[in-house]
Amino acid sequence: MELECTCMTISADEWAQKMKDARPISYKWLVGKIRKNMPELYDALALQFPNPYDQNCAVNRDYYILVHSAIEYFIRKH
User: Fold this and answer.
1) Is 30 left (phi over 0), alpha (psi -120 to 50) or beta?
2) CB-based burial label for 12 (10 Å; 0-12, 13-18, 19+)
3) Which one of 12, 50, 58, 74 is at 20 to 30 Å from 5 when CA atoms are compared?
């Protein structure tokens, strides 16, 4: 897993491509995976605290999409 980009650093067309075929994912499961594989991101975003955007997280073939502070974090699967 690696953080590829956020929605703030890409164009609308790139965003649409990265969101293609996205479906909901369990926030709790995703945060656990981030905590294990990307502890620096877990700490930087303080993911141990409640997130009002937790229901907006998603997954597709290429990315885990974490939504935090109204920003989408595109985490590439490996």
Assistant:
1) alpha
2) exposed
3) 50
Please give the single-letter amino acid code of residue 71: I
| Sign, Cα dihedral of 16, 25, 64, 57 | positive
The residue written with tokens 């969101």 in the block is: 19
- Give the 3-state secondary structure of 7-36: HHHCCHHHHHHHHCCCEECCHHHHHHHHHH
Confidence bin at 78 (pLDDT 50/70/90): confident
Q: Which of 67, 69, 62 is nearest to 4 (CA)?
A: 62
In this prediction the pTM is: 0.94
Distance CA 32, CA 34 (A): 5
**Phi/psi at 65 (nearest 5 deg)?**
-115, 105
In 10 A of CB 76, how many CB atoms? 13
